[in-house]
Amino acid sequence: MFPVRRLRRLRYNATLRDMLADVKITQDDLIAPLFVREGQGVQNAIVSMPGQVQFSVDTALDAVRRWVDKGLRAVLLFGIPDEKDSAGSGAWDASAAVQRLAAEIKRACGEMLVITDVCLCEYTDHGHCGAVARRPDGADDVDNDTTLGLLARTAVSHARAGADVVAPSAMMDGQVAAIRQALDEGGFQTVAIMSYAVKFASHMYGPFRDAAESPPQFGDRRTYQMDFRAPRQSGPEADLDIAEGADIVMVKPAATYLDVIASVRREVDVPLAAYHVSGEFAMLKAAAAAGWLDEKAAAMEVTAAIKRAGADLVITYYAEQLAEWL
Q1: Omega before 253 cis (within 30°)?
Q2: How open is the CA angle 19-23-28, to the nearest 5 degrees?
Q3: Which residues are marked as active site?
Q4: DSSP-derived secondary structure letter, 186
Q5: How much is the mean pLDDT over the chain?
Q6: Does 272 map to a domain?
Q7: How far apart are CA 77 and CA 55, in angstroms?
Q8: Is 172 left (phi over 0), alpha (psi -120 to 50) or beta?
Q9: Is residue 60 assigned to a domain?
Q10: Residue 44's closest CA among 33, 32, 60, 31?
């Protein structure tokens, strides 16, 4: 009781504060997203995501080398093709940018963990995450079961190129099982699956759709991504993916879904990742540019909050800056 016990004694000294911190962030916790497209010498600035760019394979490799030097250990690749079709066939093209970059990274920076996003939205001309079919009510929607084979084919092509981890993000029921079976049958038993198990239909993805050039051309993605008003579906989503073979599960978004991260952490005993998404990143950037907050302090605090909620790994566009600050 006061004045014998003064909790402020534990806060006066900066070193003691650091020693007693429950949450510690290191470069090993961070995964850096990377957008790669066709071409040479490409570094297209993404206006809605300050500091982020679309790379070509050659410039992306330079960036990955820089990230390795700063202590980053993992990268998440997203591809942007020159041509799209209704099936998203460019997703499993062995000569596509993601496949070529994965191979180049493993040759040049073997210690960098290569994770590949497995989805079709960037590759389809309609912008949806799978094959589209007409429903009985006359509306167009993504055909879940037809899409499974396309996702599996894409994952195998990534593994063949050198991916260490594949990350299915289409939110199709059964996608993890289909991918696990295809990987095992292809001889890729050691390739892990990091599933976007708990991915919400969020308004926080706007800038990403600029970066990946993947906005849906009709409707939205609410028939397959989760409703943000229904967090209790998170547990079953994660449990089902784990039962199907997911080695790591993910919650997306992160900063605005800390309650969901904490809930899933209590539910599962596999590693948990969380994606600090483009809109959450862009809001911090905009506030910092306006002089309304200290960007470094805010980014560190938000990342610590995501870890405090229970995430083991944080996918963040701040990865390079955090690596410098750490």
Answers
A1: yes
A2: 105
A3: 199, 252
A4: T
A5: 96
A6: yes
A7: 11
A8: beta
A9: yes
A10: 60
- List Cβ neighbours of 37 (8 Å cut-off, separation of 6 or more): 44, 54, 55, 56, 79, 80, 81, 82, 97
Q: Please tell me the number of Cα atoms within 13 Å of 281 on its side-chain side.
A: 26
Measure the CA–CA gap between 255 and 168, rounded to whole angstroms: 21
pTM: 0.96
d(CA 119, CA 127): 11
- State how far the Cα of 34 lies from the Cα of 88, in Å rounded to an integer: 20
Strand 43-45 and strand 53-55: the pairing is antiparallel
Tokens of 22: 């429950």
In a domain, 13, yes or no: no
State how beta strands 313-316 and 30-37 pair: parallel
Q: Which two tokens stand for residue 15?
A: 């070193």
DSSP H helices, the chain, are 14-19, 57-69, 97-108, 144-161, 175-185, 206-212, 234-244, 258-267, 278-289, 295-309, 319-325
Cα gap 103→190, rounded to integer Å: 17
231-255 pLDDT, tens digit each:
999 999 999 999 999 999 999 999 9
**Residue length of the chain:** 326
Note the pLDDT of residue 219.
Answer: 87
Structural domain total, the chain: 1
Q: What angle do CA 252, 231, 233 make, to 5 degrees?
A: 95
Can you give the residue range of the structural domain that contains 230? 24-325
The model's pLDDT over 117-170, given as tens digits with 9 standing for 90+, comes to 999 999 999 999 999 998 888 888 999 999 999 999 999 999 999 999 999 999
Amino acid identity for residue 105 in this structure: I
Residue 35 in domain:
yes
Can you give the CATH number for the domain in which 186 is found? 3.20.20.70
